Amino acid sequence: MNHNASPATPGSPSGRRRGRGALGSSPVQRVQRPAPLRQAVYDALVELIINGTLKPGQHLVELELAELLGVSRQPVREALQRLQTEGWVDLRPAQGAFVHLPTEAEADQLLGVRSVLETYSARLAAQQADAQDVERLWELQREGERALADDDVDGLVSTNARLHAFITELSGNAVLAELIALVDRRVRWYYTPIARPRGHDSWAEHAELIRAIAAGDADTASQVMNRHTERTRQTYHERRTAAGDENTSG
Amino acid sequence: MNHNASPATPGSPSGRRRGRGALGSSPVQRVQRPAPLRQAVYDALVELIINGTLKPGQHLVELELAELLGVSRQPVREALQRLQTEGWVDLRPAQGAFVHLPTEAEADQLLGVRSVLETYSARLAAQQADAQDVERLWELQREGERALADDDVDGLVSTNARLHAFITELSGNAVLAELIALVDRRVRWYYTPIARPRGHDSWAEHAELIRAIAAGDADTASQVMNRHTERTRQTYHERRTAAGDENTSG
DNA sequence: CCCTGGGCTTTTGCATACGAAAGTCTGTAT
DNA sequence: ATACAGACTTTCGTATGCAAAAGCCCAGGG
Lengths: 250, 250
Prior knowledge:
2 copies of one chain form a homodimer. The first copy, chain A, is mostly helical and 250 residues long. Chain A has helices at 37-50, 62-69, 73-85, 104-128, 131-149, 153-170, 174-190, 200-214, 218-249; strands spanning 59-60, 89-92, 96-99. The radius of gyration of chain A is 21 Å and the shape is globular. Residues 1-22 and 24-31 of chain A have low confidence and may be disordered. The A-B interface holds A 33-36, 38-39, 74, 77-79, 81-82, 84-86, 92-94, 106, 109-110, 112-113, 116-117, 119-120, 124, 173-176, 179 and B 33-36, 38-39, 74, 77-79, 81-82, 84-86, 92-95, 106, 109-110, 112-113, 116-117, 119-120, 124, 173-176, 179. Chain B binds a DNA duplex (30 and 30 nucleotides) through helix 3.
């Protein structure tokens, strides 16, 4: 997923006809319809925001972004519209776009919303999952436990994400899945500095959750997921507080 | 709205006319930023979609919309971006925008999501509401019961919406409030043809809910709201089925 | 009769142009 | 030195222009 814009000036063809600049050559081009540039711009900007190149509060000048990505202002503007709706940037009339600067309260609210959405998805998943799905869940669980044993942090994060995503998918509720994906991405962004996996406890909870889903016990699955996500929320809160103390003391 | 009627005369910057500093010092400088056209276009299109002028599945030609609204294609395109993100239209690359055509499954999924979100908002509201808030809730409740007694359907719908909105506001979770607002608008659109209020039962449930909130009993408030929204969902489902039968039989 | 393909029309996607608003700087008067 | 007014600069918001993709129509062949 690394389609970063090259730092060098994109040798702008700029003679009359457009050339696809730094973007446009996505590794995933299996789609019949070539994705419009605005989509590539959107992807690039989300990436730049998440990886911190574009910092919260920063003013995004359309022309700069356009040149950085080797396109004109128009696709940038269209991407910004979407980014605003999804909460990544704020658009102030006649002033332009600013990378959204989340307050502490907002970040926590987002965690709360994610918690209830994931809890609901666990409930639905318990009602939907068949034996094959459950087998896949255990597979992911084993993978996570292996990563845990190996101290493989990246693997842990990735497996955790895939496990939750699979449960969401199992829910069979596409609207829910979309919302969770969006909220989750924002949560991860806000909490990037402290987003280490919780480790053993977390995976014990996962196992409990999978058992409930396997049993088709929606109430238990819901309860377990709720506890799980609320603990994650609590952990984040503690770590943020600790980080804040460190900052104020040092 | 077309403010480019006169021929362009490049060369004179003409930055002279500015209406700000000429007048004396007014102590109150109410700087009201004019909403961009794209906002007006967005509002207009949502209205046209909700009121059925633009029908589900219909192809929206940018130029037609632009002429209809008296603007150029550009603000229309930007509005369409937002409309897509919010689920009102589908944007197909190189084909344009189509008014979103919800499947039955999707509509029901939205009701499910709305249900959990509102349930969560009731839980939070119960933890947050003070005596004054509760008084306001009872006020709305009385207003609803009056409308019920008067067979005032519009008043019933409006008061119901305000009651739910107030509870959402009481939750103190802005992220949640935004999501609910969005989901709710789509739900109302989908179910417009059958969206009569449920009437008496519904308001009895409201009263029960308010009592729980007044008592600060978050668990009960949550439970009651969940039952309430799930019943609404069930009612919609029944009505849709009935309407579908009528259609197929006639 | 149905399928097919090549030109014509429509519509999108992107680029560019330009007026206007917001922000910035500078010189002057107090 | 400070505060303010006015120009200067930057950036936004919108309109317009143009090439390419998609859709359409109709003639010709299986």
